[in-house]
Amino acid sequence: MYFLLSIVGFAGVLFSGANAAPHSNLDVRAALDDFVSQQSTVSLQGALNNIGPDGSEVPGAKAGFVVASPSKVNPPYFYTWTRDSALTLKMLIDEFIFGNTNLQSYIEDYIHAQAVLQTVSNPSGTFLPSGLGMGEPKYQVDGTRFNGAWGRPQRDGPALRAIALISYSNWLMKNGQSNKAKTVIWPIISNDLSYVGEYWNQTTFDLWEETKGSSFFTVQNQNRALVQGIQLSKDLGVKCTGCDQAPEVLCFLQSFWNGNFTVSNINVDNGRTGLDGNSILGAISIFDIDAYCDSPTMQPCHSKSLANFKVLIDTFRETYSINKGIPLGSGVAVGRYAEDVYMGGNPWYLITTAAAEFLYDAVAQWKARHNLYVDETSLAFFKDLYPAVQVRKYDSGNENSPFAQIMNAVTAYADSFVAITEKYVPSNGSLAEQFNRDTGVPLSAIDLTWSYAAFVTMSQRKAGKYPSSWGSRNAVAPPATCSATSTTGVFAPATAAGAPNVTSTCQVGVTFNVDATTYYGENLYVIGSTDDVGAWDVDNALPMGAGSYTPADPLWTVTSFLNAGETVSYKYVRQENCDQPYLYETQNRTLTVPACGSDGITQADSWTGQVGTAGTC
Ligand SMILES: *[C@@H]1O[C@H](CO)[C@@H](O)[C@H](O)[C@H]1NC(C)=O
Ligand SMILES: *[C@@H]1O[C@H](CO)[C@@H](O)[C@H](O)[C@H]1NC(C)=O
Ligand SMILES: *[C@@H]1O[C@H](CO)[C@@H](O)[C@H](O)[C@H]1NC(C)=O
Ligand SMILES: *[C@@H]1O[C@H](CO)[C@@H](O)[C@H](O)[C@H]1NC(C)=O
Ligand SMILES: *[C@@H]1O[C@H](CO)[C@@H](O)[C@H](O)[C@H]1NC(C)=O
Fold it and tell me: CATH homologous superfamily for 505-606?
């Protein structure tokens, strides 16, 4: 109800803004400020509406779980992703530290939810003994596992969660609650940093869940998490397992630069240029107001980041027809990457605002350093904005100084990305995932939590609100030669934060084989009585593969790890085409998983019950 009321007020503001016909740059800027101020209020509420247990848009979500979007079909985003949740909480924690004390209960709920979530066995693996389950990207909104086929693991999640929780721990320490930081929150962070230290050098799905390789965004955040972990563990007097990997991770981060731009996904050949909004989102998520611009952490003000920004943004000038005619040096609608075809390949709200945030960050860093070095690498970026620019050092000066003029030009460039966002935000302020590349009409998931969170962080930076330094200056320089290394993690349930006291979860592989003649377009699943096999919820059943299917031997198969010693009821279920109802076997089958340490078992079954027919659609 509150949300709807605030929307009505907001629409009125926009309407009067549109009629006001601003006369000067000052009016234009004031109108943009009004938009940002209104939209950031709507956006903060929009994010909160998607968090359990009380979020108005997400009934059924448990306390502390951030739902990606209320959208249940086309696309189905009614799940909780570790990445989106951590980025949203980082925003809420910063808002809380900036003074919005109402947000503390969300943070406390999140801490509890994540402590439990770390221990949940899932298709990426178990929590004990090696932390593998923490690479799982998404879960049901009640914190149970998601069994569907997915791009897993995604190794940015633990790093991002650690970063969010470290920010809150630092606040606790400054406010006389070091003991809570040490006993309740550190055990969660410690698991996450152990995960990063052990697995940073293994491939991962990227933040768009499409590409398995090494992802710039992931590596950048992994480095930040470990650097902050070193400092926090010192402050708390605890040991950080895995943090010793920070210099190697930083070393690896340097290899994403190809001489002209950041190749966002390496160790993969996906036929793309590598120009990807990944690199802008990475830079803003490791922004440090105290950083030096030549820091190898690749801050927004780094020459390579700026060069990459120009090349990347310019690809979108060509890609989307809504950007046609917008001159160089003026903001455009920004998407994931030029070759994108998901939902037709469109600009995203959260990446367009990220472009603005990136530029506000860079300006803040130059102003804080009182200087700017333009070099051959960054020259082209500045040329579009300030044609008189030269390769040299600019020191800060009065308001007519070249330094001040360049700052104004980059700030105006940032504002122009916000103005593009404003143009394509519907009058009620709701932020979907994307907007149409030809018409600008919102599309894909409605009320995307990440879109809202990204708008709020952009408006914080625009307003000159910066999270305190994360210590990038203290990051140990990368070694001259990079090595492929790993530190074995130490994993233990964070019981003081509410995690169940799981001991080593012993699982045994069970292969389900069923002979079932199917028509092209029909799919098979295993469904059963435990969470591991979907707890009789067909949306969470285990998808089977037909890779060895022949007419003579119509084999469907899937292997899953089930808890040793447990008895499971299960059956097979057919998914029909053309929205026909699912067909279940009539009988319930039973299996008993062998004892811990046993070899895996295979169920050799034949379909019983009704078979399907292809629909006409
Ligand atoms: C592992 O690290 C080495 C050294 O930095 C690097 O060459 C290699 O590409 C990395 N592999 C992955 C998958 O991270
Ligand atoms: C970098 O840009 C230069 C000049 O356009 C070009 O000659 C070179 O091939 C580019 N290198 C890469 C790796 O794209
Ligand atoms: C807001 O506007 C969008 C786009 O016009 C629409 O899809 C959505 O349902 C509206 N939301 C509310 C809460 O009215
Ligand atoms: C958790 O279980 C272990 C092993 O059973 C036990 O040693 C430990 O005290 C338990 N911790 C808590 C907090 O209950
Ligand atoms: C048998 O299967 C159905 C789902 O088809 C399930 O609802 C029911 O609980 C199962 N019964 C037993 C005893 O497992």
Answer: Immunoglobulins (2.60.40.10)
